[in-house]
């Protein structure tokens, strides 16, 4: 420990970055310092727009188009990346600094096999020969616990699952044995059961090769498993930096505390439903198929007035298909959907206007759910006019009331376009559009999964308040069990198109569970930095995540 | 000649290397020179050499010896035109930046020079087309009494011109300037009407196919495939020949048939685009939300799909307009398009085409047919500049 400076791999001092929009440069990062030692993992967290990814890329000496580093220095292993020549940087990037992007599916070239893309870096940089690198790739695949490591490299990106692709990309980043890897939200798009596998694999391989890493995410529980140090960013400013345990145990700043507190939101338990009550929506023995491929098998559950039923399961388990059956977009093969005890026509085109009005939907991606060419006022006014026949001033008054209900100032937002709103605000508009129809029943399809935790909590609180005020019934589709814990009254667990388990929330979170429910519950990262280690010790690598699902 | 060119290119390799090396030494290894690939350095050197040659050629074009000057006459005109148009476009953009609403001023600020040139040209064409009757000194079919035919453009009596007819007269003594101006009205006006009709037809059917899908989509798409399988110009020629028999019998002008025929043929391309764009929009959640609300087809197409498809459709409109315009000019050139005595640029090129043979020794005489051809080329280039700019804007690309 005599020469401490040589231990430092990345040194960023007073980095200020600006982005070009509307003909002016506006600040993105306002002077952040970052120090990363060899073999250390730094977690970078913050909500979207906080500048996490921009800062992560700056650590590579790279900026996206329309972004520039206006002040400060970035040093990698003593080399000033901002002043280095293109040739020097070419030598570093890929070889000593690697990058793992959020969407592996979008980052692989779909026209080439995985292994061919894997060997590209080492061959280009002259680290290894083609055959040697291919051999090494297969070893890396094995280390990352990919199935059939000998063969998986000869597949095309579309032939492997999302979790596997993300691990292939990690292997590719490892191919030149870099000193630094930047992970940009590598597990955000994955299911919990897949995420845990990827997390275990990344942590394992980073440990084995003593690689330093910057891990960018907005999920605190994930970062708690991965990082030695955590840096919290808020709107381009550093809030605080500390090692993981200190940060989790004793955050000093208000903002950090509020991030930590998000998961504490939980609604009071409601009394048990009376057995003779008519459910608002009853799903009865529904079988459905896309073409000839069966998707749902004998799905039944009830949704009662003023209550929230969370439908949980990984992607492909039939959650959203059930929603499509209820709305009538996908008429079921057999079985029926009942609204207030009356059978609904299977096809939405055959339903009456009033039946359509009673069932509304809020979508996962607010970006695609709102017409980008319509103003907020128009979007909300349309169902008001269409269903309630209000015109002119009355319509405007109703829209204003709705905007107030979702906590947005009407005069300020009425004429804006969806692109001028933040993600959370857009989702609120989606809620207002559903409310405008004055429905009894709303399907919420992963409404918070694309949002940051603080914003998501705001949406959940809003939905809870509206439910209490308007006696709405929610079907809450999600794969996030923290959300379930926060808002649900009853839970339905689905797997492969079947209902595996259903019941009140209290019972769901208490053992004994169905083995699949148990796996889902155990895969949700907790805020304890030892959680993943303990879980791996307890269960072993082969009994977590998708590997365990396959065994069922 | 080839050997000399090759040697010059090789010498330039050396100069490029020296240029980059000198740049690095003089600027103290500034990033611009340090990271400059050799290809870029070579490009700079090549560019400088081409520029020097152009300057030399331009001076040759202004030489007092007519034999030399005639050789470089058209290059000289092209360079002068380019400079004049650039200045005009620059002034126009400056004007747009200081006059108008905040929105239009902002638009002009972010506009490249090519786009402002395009807009300026289109505006000028539009003015000429709309006010042709007022602007043109003579009628389009007027054979001016007492004036010789084939007056050479330029208005210089020594060269066979006449200052009263700056662009000369054609072979039966009609004023070419007036015919050019009326040609804008006829050719551009008819092209505009045809393009609108093509978009109405192709756009509405394309959106319908995208929204409804199923058998309607199949029938329309296959029908379009069949129409597109036939080479369009030959198909148009064939149909025009048939129409030229019907037109007098039915008492409908042939031009109406031409508009319909070209519109139908071009609507197939619009159909394909509208269907593809529509299909991308139809899968969006907001369309699903509107369907589940119980909205009708009209609302879906006009309120939800159309506003989101305007950018690609508008860009296609510009391109399609050029193609339609060229098709009309081509048909007129072949003799089945706009019928005499109406002035039309395609017909004018055909009628005066023989003068091109004089280009080597009497370039002014050869200019006569090139005026109409130039009018066509200028408008096509202008429209494409504007379309490029709009595409760039709607795709959200940064520089």
UniProtKB/TrEMBL annotation, chain A:
Secretion signal, residue range per the UniProt entry: none
Compartments it resides in: Cell inner membrane
One family name in Pfam for this protein: ABC_tran
Entry keyword annotation includes Mitochondrion: no
MF terms in GO: ATP binding; ATP hydrolysis activity
Topology of this chain in the membrane: Peripheral membrane protein
UniProt entry keywords in alphabetical sequence: ATP-binding, Cell inner membrane, Cell membrane, Membrane, Nucleotide-binding, Translocase, Transport
Annotated ABC transporter domain residues: 10-260, 281-521
Chief location bin: membrane
Gene Ontology cellular component list: plasma membrane
GO biological process: peptide transport
Keyword match ATP-binding: yes
Protein family per UniProt: Belongs to the ABC transporter superfamily.
Protein's name according to its UniProt entry: Peptide/nickel transport system ATP-binding protein
UniProtKB/TrEMBL annotation, chain B:
Any one Gene Ontology BP term: transmembrane transport
Localization of this protein: Cell membrane
PROSITE patterns from the UniProt entry: ABC_TM1
InterPro entries linked to this entry: BP-dependent_transpt_permease, MetI-like, MetI-like_sf
Alphabetical list of Gene3D superfamilies matching this protein: MetI-like
Pfam families from the UniProt entry: BPD_transp_1
UniProt key word Magnesium: no
Annotated ABC transmembrane type-1 domain residues: 184-382
Transmembrane segments: 6-26, 38-59, 71-92, 113-136, 188-212, 224-246, 252-271, 317-338, 358-387
Keywords from the UniProt entry: Cell membrane, Membrane, Transmembrane, Transmembrane helix, Transport
GO terms for cellular component: plasma membrane
Major localisation: membrane
Membrane topology label: Multi-pass membrane protein
Family: Belongs to the binding-protein-dependent transport system permease family.
Name this polypeptide is given: Peptide/nickel transport system permease protein
């Amino acid at each position: 420990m005599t020469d401490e400076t040589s231990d430092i791999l990345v040194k960023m001092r007073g980095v200020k970055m600006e982005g070009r929009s509307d003909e002016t440069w506006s600040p993105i990062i306002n002077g952040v310092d970052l120090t990363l030692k060899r073999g250390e993992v730094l977690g970078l967290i913050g909500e979207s727009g906080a500048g996490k990814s921009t800062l992560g890329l700056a650590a590579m000496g790279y900026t996206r188009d329309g972004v520039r580093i206006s002040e400060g220095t970035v040093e990698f292993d003593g080399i000033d990346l901002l002043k280095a020549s293109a040739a020097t940087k070419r030598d570093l990037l890929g070889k000593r600094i690697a990058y793992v992007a959020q969407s592996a599916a979008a980052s692989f070239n779909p026209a080439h096999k995985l292994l061919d893309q894997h060997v590209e870096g080492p061959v280009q940089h002259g680290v290894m020969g083609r055959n040697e690198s291919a051999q090494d790739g297969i070893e890396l695949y094995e280390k990352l616990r990919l199935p059939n490591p000998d063969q998986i490299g000869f597949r095309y990106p579309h032939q492997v699952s999302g979790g596997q692709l993300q691990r292939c990309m990690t292997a590719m980043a490892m191919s030149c044995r870099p000193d630094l890897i930047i992970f940009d939200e590598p597990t955000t798009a994955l299911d919990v059961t897949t995420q845990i596998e990827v997390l275990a694999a990344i942590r394992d391989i980073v440990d084995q090769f003593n690689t330093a890493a910057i891990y960018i995410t907005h999920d605190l529980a994930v970062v708690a498993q991965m990082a030695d140090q955590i840096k919290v960013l808020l709107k381009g400013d550093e809030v605080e930096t500390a090692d993981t345990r200190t940060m989790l145990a004793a955050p000093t700043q208000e903002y950090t505390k509020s991030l930590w507190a998000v998961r504490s939101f939980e609604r009071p338990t409601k009394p048990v439903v009376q057995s003779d009550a008519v459910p608002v929506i009853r799903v009865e023995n529904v079988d459905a198929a896309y073409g000839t491929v069966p998707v749902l098998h004998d799905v039944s559950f009830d949704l009662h007035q003023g209550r929230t039923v969370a439908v949980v399961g990984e992607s492909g388990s039939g959650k959203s298909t059930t929603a499509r059956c209820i709305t009538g977009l996908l008429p079921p093969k057999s079985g029926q959907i009942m609204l207030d005890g009356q059978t609904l026509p299977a096809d939405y085109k055959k339903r009456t206007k009033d039946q359509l009005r009673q069932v509304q939907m809020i979508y996962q991606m607010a970006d695609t759910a709102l017409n980008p060419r319509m103003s907020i006022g128009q979007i909300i006014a349309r169902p008001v006019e269409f269903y309630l026949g209000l015109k002119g001033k009355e319509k405007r008054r109703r829209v204003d009331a709705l905007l107030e209900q979702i906590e947005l100032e009407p005069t300020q937002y009425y004429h804006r376009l969806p692109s001028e709103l933040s993600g959370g605000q857009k989702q609120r508009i989606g809620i207002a559009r559903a409310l405008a129809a004055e429905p009894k029943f709303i399907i919420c399809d992963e409404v918070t999964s694309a949002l940051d935790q603080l914003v998501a909590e705001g949406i959940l609180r809003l939905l809870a308040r509206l439910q209490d005020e308007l006696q709405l019934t929610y079907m809450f589709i999600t794969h996030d069990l923290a959300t379930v814990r926060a808002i649900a009254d009853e839970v339905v667990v689905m797997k492969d198109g079947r209902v595996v388990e259903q019941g009140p929330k209290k019972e769901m979170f208490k053992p004994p569970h169905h083995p699949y429910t148990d796996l889902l519950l155990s895969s949700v990262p907790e805020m304890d930095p030892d959680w993943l280690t303990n879980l791996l010790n307890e269960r072993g690598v082969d009994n977590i995540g998708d590997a365990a699902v396959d065994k069922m | 000649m080839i050997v000399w060119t090759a040697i010059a290119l090789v010498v330039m390799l050396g100069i490029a290397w020296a240029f980059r090396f000198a740049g690095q030494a003089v600027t103290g290894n500034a990033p611009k020179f340090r990271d400059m690939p050799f290809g870029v350095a070579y490009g700079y050197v090549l560019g400088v050499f081409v520029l020097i040659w152009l300057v030399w050629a331009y001076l040759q074009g202004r030489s007092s010896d007519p034999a030399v000057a005639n050789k470089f006459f058209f290059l000289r005109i092209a360079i002068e035109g380019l400079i004049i148009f650039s200045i005009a476009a620059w002034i126009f953009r400056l004007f747009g930046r200081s006059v108008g609403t905040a929105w239009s001023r902002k638009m002009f600020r972010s506009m490249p020079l090519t786009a402002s040139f395009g807009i300026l040209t289109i505006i000028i064409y539009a003015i000429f087309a709309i006010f042709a009757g007022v602007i043109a000194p003579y009628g389009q079919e007027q054979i001016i009494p007492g004036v010789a035919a084939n007056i050479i453009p330029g208005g210089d009596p020594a060269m066979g011109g006449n200052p009263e007819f700056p662009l000369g007269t054609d072979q039966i003594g009609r004023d070419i300037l007036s015919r050019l101006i009326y040609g804008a009205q006829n050719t551009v006006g008819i092209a505009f009407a045809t393009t609108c009709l093509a978009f109405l037809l192709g756009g509405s059917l394309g959106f319908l196919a995208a929204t409804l899908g199923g058998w309607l989509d199949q029938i329309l798409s296959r029908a379009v495939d069949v129409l597109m399988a036939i080479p369009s110009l030959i198909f148009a020629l064939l149909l025009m020949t048939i129409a030229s028999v019907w037109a007098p019998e039915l008492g409908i002008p042939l031009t109406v048939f031409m508009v319909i025929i070209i519109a139908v043929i071009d609507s197939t391309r619009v159909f394909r685009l509208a269907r593809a764009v529509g299909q991308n929009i139809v899968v969006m959640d907001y369309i699903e939300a509107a369907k589940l609300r119980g909205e009708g087809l009209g609302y879906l197409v006009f309120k939800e799909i159309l506003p989101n498809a305007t950018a690609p459709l508008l860009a296609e409109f510009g391109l399609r307009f050029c193609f339609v315009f060229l098709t009309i000019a081509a048909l007129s050139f072949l003799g089945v398009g706009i019928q005499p005595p109406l002035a039309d640029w395609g017909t004018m090129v055909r009628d005066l085409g023989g003068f091109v043979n004089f280009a080597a020794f009497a370039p002014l005489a050869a200019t006569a047919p090139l005026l109409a051809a130039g009018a066509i080329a200028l408008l096509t280039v202008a429209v494409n500049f504007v379309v490029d700019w709009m595409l760039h804007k709607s795709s959200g690309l940064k520089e």
